[in-house]
Amino acid sequence: MQIHTSYNKKDLCHIIQTFSLGIDYDHKINNRDDIRRKLQDYINKYEIEELYFLNEENKITRLSVKEKNEILASAKKIISFCKNGYNIERSLYKDYYEILCEVKNIAKYGDISSVRRALKLFNIRHEPPVEIFISENIKLQLEQKKLLKKLSIPVLQCRQGTFLIEF
User: Fold this and answer.
1) Alpha-carbon radius of gyration of the chain
2) Per-residue pLDDT reduced to its tens digit, 47-72
3) In this structure, are residues 110 and 132 in contact, taking their beta carbons and an 8 Å threshold?
4) Is the Cβ–Cβ distance between 27 and 9 less than 8 Å?
5) Rounded to two decimals, what is the model's pTM?
6) Nearest-CA neighbor of 88 among 76, 72, 104, 77?
7) How far apart (Å, rounded) are the C-alpha atoms in residues 116 and 80?
8) Could you state, in order of their start, the residue ranges of all structural domains in the chain?
9) Is the dihedral of CA 60, 61, 64, 70 positive or negative?
């Protein structure tokens, strides 16, 4: 079995950790081809059918720098529109339809924090709200972040007993 070349080093390391494979690698030392070769040998040796999806193209597409910059620029324009009181005259847009098209266009890139912020601000005044598409990994990270934030809120603790205070 051949692993498709569309999988990057981070994806391969994540797969090894997720499936708890006994492959020794160091992501700082080994490059993508080394990790891919080790994973490929492991799959061929133990014939793990669950990992045969690796011979197909990676479904998670990566954005190029140019595409990401365009999406970030669109998100910044939408945030600016929302901060200016949802006033079209004070924005770079000509009409509300143009804004709606751009919002729907960037909604599929919900993994980017600026896009999430722009859509959250936009959905305050728009009915029905535009749905933000977020990958499972980012959803888990956001939930963990929210949980950590809840746990780090300072709480008043009262202790009973006798205390000696000297001045």
Assistant:
1) 24
2) 877 888 888 887 777 788 999 999 99
3) yes
4) yes
5) 0.67
6) 77
7) 14
8) 9-55, 65-136
9) negative
